[in-house]
Amino acid sequence: MAATTRTPDSPHAPIVTLTVNPALDLSTGTDRLVPEHKLRCGPSVVEAGGGGVNVSRVIARLGGASTALVTVGGATGGAYRDLLAAEAASLAALPGDGAMSTALIPIAGATRQNITIDETTTGHQFRFVLQGPTLSDDEGMRCLDTLEGALPTGPGFVVLSGSLPPGAPDDFYARAVQRAREHGRGVVVDASGAALAAAVEAAPHIIKPSGRELRELAVTLGLASSGIATERVEVDELIALALQLIARTGTAIVALTLGAQGAAVVTADAALRLSAPDVEVRSTVGAGDSFLGAMVLRLAQGHDLAAAARAGVAAGAATASMPGTQLGERAHIERLEAQLAGDAG
Predict the structure, then answer these.
(1) 8 A C-beta contact, residue 335 and residue 294
(2) Which stretches does DSSP call E strand in the chain?
(3) Distance from the Cα of residue 280 to its chain's centroid
(4) How far apart are CA 224 and CA 68, in angstroms?
(5) From CA 286, how far away is CA 47, in angstroms rounded?
(6) Which uninterrupted H or E stretch holds 137?
(7) Three-class SS of residue 216?
(8) φ, ψ for residue 188 (rounded to 5)?
(9) Spatial contact of 285 and 306, defined as CB atoms under 8 Å apart
(10) Average pLDDT over the chain, rounded to whole?
């Protein structure tokens, strides 16, 4: 367990994130991807990635604090652990930043790796997402027990983010939702496919799908015909699907991320549309995690949903303006957040 004692910028309800399929993220660039050639690459960056970890990282960048629970294994897991420890130490040493405590959950398999390559002559980005290690039943139970042990009873948020590794049952996040809700926590799920479909039946407080993920979820739940999964769908139609999902499952908030179109945050009573700020998009890696981290922090600080959504859109745009796997900087996020607040006024 690596922990910090820094007090966040402003008091907020506790936040815990869980990442069961993290990855060492390698990013680099080359002139052009050409088959069967040796491709000379530029400088490379290796970072400890994964949905929940990135959410915790963004929370810390914005002056908040969270506990990141993450599985690690093998030699790559050792490298991952060292990167997290170094980052936590650097956060603790810098004034104005928040804190990220980590609790590592050992597994037998080796932590996976992901590769992002920017093709510099075209501006195209190629993302290779490798398969994670198999999670045994005992290891899955250890993850759930560790999560429950990190949850003092009372208000706060649990963020379940990222893909499930091989071996994890489709209802893994659903079981995590149930445990967290028993402790009075608001549960946020950022997943896709069968894992998301099972999780929404447990009625999490917030889900954060993309447009495609929401369409696929609607098909799985019988809210729409199969053709919608591949059709072009207008934002108003996506909002209508979100309202059906809320009525069907009891999920309170659907935070729909729409890339260049911004976001739509939907509750049973209202739908808030937000345009994306005008930034030069360099990489979309981590943009969704940034949206979620900023939004959850603002909610934990007691801000209303509209303000939290603006923070999310600002953080997602700031990260999209960064190269490779780099996340948005605090000053940029807060500048965009203020701009969006002015536009709303």
Answers:
(1) no
(2) 15-19, 23-30, 45-49, 65-72, 99-106, 112-119, 124-129, 157-161, 186-190, 206-207, 253-257, 263-266, 271-274
(3) 21
(4) 36
(5) 12
(6) helix 137-149
(7) helix
(8) -115, 130
(9) no
(10) 91
Say which amino acid occupies 62.
L
Q: Rounded CA gap, 227 and 126, in Å?
A: 28
Q: 217 vs 75, 120, 178, 194, 242, CA distance in Å?
A: 36, 35, 20, 8, 10
What residues are annotated to the active site? 289
User: Distance between CA atoms of 323 and 294, rounded to whole angstroms?
Assistant: 19
The DSSP code sequence of 287-324 is HHHHHHHHHHHHHHTT--HHHHHHHHHHHHHHHHTSST
Question: Could you count the other beta carbons within 10 Å of the beta carbon of residue 201?
Answer: 15
Residues 175-234 have pLDDT tens digits of 999 999 999 999 999 999 999 999 999 999 999 999 999 999 999 999 988 778 677 789
Distance CA 333, CA 26 (A): 24
Q: State residue 11's pLDDT score.
A: 84
322 alpha-carbon distance from chain centroid: 17
| SS3 of 221-235 | CCCCCHHHHCCCCCH
Report the side by side order of strands in the sheet with 186-190. 99-106, 65-72, 15-19, 157-161, 186-190, 206-207, 253-257, 263-266, 271-274
Q: Which run of H or of E encompasses 328?
A: none
Distance CA(118)–CA(131), nearest Å, equals 21
Please list the residues that pair with 72 across neighbouring strands. 106
Residues 6+ positions from 113 with CB-CB distance below 8 Å? 23, 24, 25, 26, 76, 130
Q: Tell me how far apart the alpha carbons of residues 86 and 90 are, in angstroms, rounded to a whole number.
A: 6
Q: Who's near 211: CB < 8 A, 6+ residues apart? A: 233, 238, 256, 258
User: How high is the pLDDT of residue 4?
Assistant: 40
Task: For the chain, give the number of residues.
Answer: 345
DSSP state of 36: T
